[in-house]
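Weekly puzzle thread! Below is a chain. First person to post its structure in token form gets bragging rights.
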Amino acid sequence: MNTSIKIKRSTYLKISIFILISLIIPFTNGCAMFQYQLRPPFFRPYKTVRLQVTAYCACEKCCGWERDSRGRKVYAYGPQKGKTKIVGMTASGTFAKKGSIAADTDIFPMGTIMYIEGYGYGIVEDIGSAIVGEHIDLFFKSHERALEWGNKTLDVKVWLPSKKNK
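Winning reply:
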């Protein structure tokens, strides 16, 4: 009597695909499960810069929005005062998440990757009216966590984006 187990070809294929994906996905940024595994380009050197590092969240206190008479979220001040605000949307058009950094884009252009001790890797995706010069603002999911971070002066590793069209 033959007691060997026969595995259907389709089952074998599914198992193979699962194993392959399990080995590849941790090294990509394409899966929501691994979206926060931002890494700088290993072939480009970094520079260390001493920066003022503060924190923000998507609340009305941090991002300058309020509700109008109809209950809609609108800008509370500035040139867009009264216009509809999409809460959590960064200046680059992405939604803020852990790793989103607001910076002065004259110094650190959009796409600059940074490593901040105690926070991890982040990427410049946002700007802020109070973020000028050697100052960055780190995104946190809650106002309490942003307040816990406070205001620090730290040495930050910076990888500027490559200049493609020289």
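Puzzle host: Confirmed. Bonus trivia for everyone else. The first helix runs from residue 9 to 24.
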